[in-house]
């Protein structure tokens, strides 16, 4: 008899029933939202804390690999376990209510901060999980939308959302809608989105740049930085003194936080980056954030990198105007069978997850040290992803040194293998950010061995040529045939068992899990990851690069 057990999920109190089936299958059948991915005990997505109750491990088929995800004594994998009785479980970092993409919010107040800047305070109908620095999209009646940054830390403000909005002449939102808004009115919002967020990685000095209402995106990052005892400097550019509309708060913060300084920079006096560079920050170890007009962001980045700032320590959001021609992301037309997406899927969310994954990869690569073991590198990577705000990894992090670079991801590696002074390293990340799957991997060379350098050159050439072929309309299957020929022409072998895959709002594992190399239609933008693994024909040397297929990569 298949006895049914009651499984309670804390702290929500929601329950589902499970019998002989795997707990993951029982939970999925109940319709509750479940974090999962690999179903084989490798990624850790389905990890839960067992607060009460007994369970037994799944019986493995002969020769099946044992689950390898490391667990604490009170943790269990839903995909590898059956209940033996009633249980109480907790799923850290997961909300059972699928986070909505759209929310309604009521206007609480509206007031002028300066002659053309309005502070708008809203209360959403559901509390939003917002990372400091993110923005929301305000939906207009014609289906279009406008982006505005959340200028506070809602979790510390009873869930309220504060916006600082410049009124632009003829602005569909900032003039036509905002002008008439009154307390009690309801607005439709989407999000939150954005990867220009507080990184919380170490105690580096923080340098902040804003122009105009770019300050709205910077303020929550400033509030987060002030909670740490680190050096924080803000450069805020404006056209006139009234543009520094939060001066009272900033002046008080200088008194309250001796390690905080801010500099209003009038356009007539110079540019924010020139003032900052004149102050001689320790750019090699700084963490820089910039929000505002695109020209400022480009120049700050260029000049800070020239002064020694590592590229991954520059985090920015350009406040491009939404109105006018062609600035909205196109609505994707996905194949209904092979390109299903979840309720939260959005271009903005996928783009932000890509940005944050690229940054995480660079941060992890910068922390690789000659002499460290693969195991130590994996622990460091897990710590980095967590510090940067990843809630899960939808596939395990893969780091491979030397001869391990020719192994496919699922094959075991030597955790004791040490990184040598002359070596080649593959790092492959699959983090989940704000409910969106990121996936980015690359290959790094230590020393200057010609075969190692030749491998990364060939790898990127094969990837770029294959991506160009995608732009010409090839199917997934044709892309991998093309990549194979491209690799051979360069004297390398394409490892065809790494064959590309879907990416979406987490978990894409809910949908058909087809490989890109088996797809007989041209893959759509922002739905598929192109993976290229090259191996040397005779030497144990390999390289790996992957990225989501997108038009403006
Ligand atoms: C991620 C992100 C976050 C943003 N956060 C904020 C924020 O917190 N506060 C804020 O005030 N703005 C912010 N912006 C900018 C804001 O979204 C745009 O200015 C938006 O176009 C304003 O919408 P609107 O309907 O009022 O004007 P629209 O109808 O979009 O524009 C009307 C006309 O004015 C022009 N225009 C629009 N904005 C500007 C501008 N800033 N300068 C000069 N010309 C402009 C347009 O090209 C168009 O011709 C952000 C933008 C992005 C991408
Ligand atoms: S470990 Fe269970 S889904 Fe990956």
Automatic annotation (TrEMBL):
Domain 2Fe-2S ferredoxin-type: 5-95
InterPro entries: 2Fe-2S_ferredoxin-like_sf, 2Fe-2S_ferredoxin-type, 2Fe2S_fd_BS, Beta-grasp_dom_sf, Cbr1-like_FAD-bd_dom, Creatinase/aminopeptidase-like, FAD-bd_FR_type, FNR_nucleotide-bd
SUPFAM superfamilies xrefs: 2Fe-2S ferredoxin-like, Creatinase/aminopeptidase, Ferredoxin reductase-like, C-terminal NADP-linked domain, Riboflavin synthase domain-like
Transmembrane regions listed in the UniProt entry: none
Alphabetized UniProt keyword annotations: Iron, Iron-sulfur, Metal-binding
Cofactors (names): [2Fe-2S] cluster
Domain FAD-binding FR-type: 100-199
GO molecular function: 2 iron, 2 sulfur cluster binding; oxidoreductase activity
Xref: Pfam families: FAD_binding_6, Fer2, NAD_binding_1, Peptidase_M24
Protein name: (Fe-S)-binding protein
Organism of origin: Pseudomonas extremorientalis
């Amino acid at each position: 008899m298949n006895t049914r057990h009651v499984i309670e999920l804390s702290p929500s109190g929601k329950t589902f029933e499970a019998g002989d089936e795997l707990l993951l299958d029982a939970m999925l059948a109940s319709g509750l939202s479940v974090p999962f991915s690999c179903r084989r005990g490798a990624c850790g997505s389905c990890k839960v804390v067992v607060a009460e109750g007994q369970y037994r491990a799944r019986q493995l088929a002969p020769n099946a690999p044992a689950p390898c995800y490391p667990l604490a004594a009170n943790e269990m994998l839903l995909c590898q376990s059956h209940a033996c009785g009633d249980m109480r479980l907790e799923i850290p970092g997961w909300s059972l209510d699928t986070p909505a993409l759209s929310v309604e919010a009521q206007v609480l107040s509206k007031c002028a901060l300066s002659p053309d800047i309005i502070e708008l305070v809203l209360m959403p109908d559901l509390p939003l999980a917002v990372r400091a620095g993110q923005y929301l999209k305000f939906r207009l009646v014609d289906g279009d939308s406008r982006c505005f940054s959340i200028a506070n830390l809602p979790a510390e403000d009873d869930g309220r959302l504060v916006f600082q909005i410049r009124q632009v002449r003829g602005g569909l939102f900032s003039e036509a809608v905002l002008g008439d808004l009154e307390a009690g009115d309801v607005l439709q919002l989407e999000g939150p989105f954005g990867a220009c967020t507080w990184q919380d990685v170490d105690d580096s000095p923080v340098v902040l740049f804003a122009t105009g209402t770019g300050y709205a995106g910077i303020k929550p990052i400033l509030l987060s930085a002030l909670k740490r005892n680190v050096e924080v400097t803000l450069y805020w550019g404006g056209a006139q003194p009234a543009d520094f509309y939060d001066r009272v708060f900033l002046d008080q913060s200088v008194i309250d936080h001796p390690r905080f300084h801010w500099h209003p920079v009038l356009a007539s006096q110079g540019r924010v980056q020139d003032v900052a560079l004149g102050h001689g920050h320790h750019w090699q170890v700084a963490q820089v954030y910039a929000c505002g007009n695109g020209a400022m962001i480009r120049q700050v980045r260029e000049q800070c990198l020239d002064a020694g700032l590592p590229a991954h320590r520059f985090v920015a959001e350009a406040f491009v105007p939404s109105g006018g021609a062609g600035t909205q992301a196109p609505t994707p037309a996905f194949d209904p069978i092979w390109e299903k997406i979840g309720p939260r899927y959005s271009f903005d969310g996928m783009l932000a997850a890509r940005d944050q994954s690229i940054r995480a990869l660079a941060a992890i690569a910068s922390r690789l040290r000659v002499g460290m073991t693969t195991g130590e590198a994996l622990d460091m990577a897990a710590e980095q992803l967590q510090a940067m705000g990843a809630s899960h990894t939808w596939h395990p992090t893969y780091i491979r040194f030397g001869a391990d670079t020719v192994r496919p991801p699922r094959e075991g590696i030597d955790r004791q293998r040490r990184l040598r002074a002359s070596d080649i390293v593959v790092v492959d990340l699959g983090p989940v950010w704000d409910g969106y799957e990121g996936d980015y991997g690359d290959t790094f060379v230590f020393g200057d061995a010609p075969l190692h350098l030749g491998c990364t050159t060939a790898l990127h050439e094969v990837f770029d040529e294959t991506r160009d072929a995608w732009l010409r309309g090839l199917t997934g299957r044709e892309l991998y045939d093309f990549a194979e020929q491209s690799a051979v022409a360069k004297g390398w072998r394409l490892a065809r068992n790494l064959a590309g895959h879907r990416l979406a709002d987490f978990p894409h594992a809910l949908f058909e899990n087809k490989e890109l190399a088996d797809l007989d239609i041209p893959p759509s933008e922002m739905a598929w990851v192109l993976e290229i693994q090259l191996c040397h024909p005779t030497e144990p040397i390999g390289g790996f690069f992957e990225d989501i297929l997108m038009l403006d990569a």
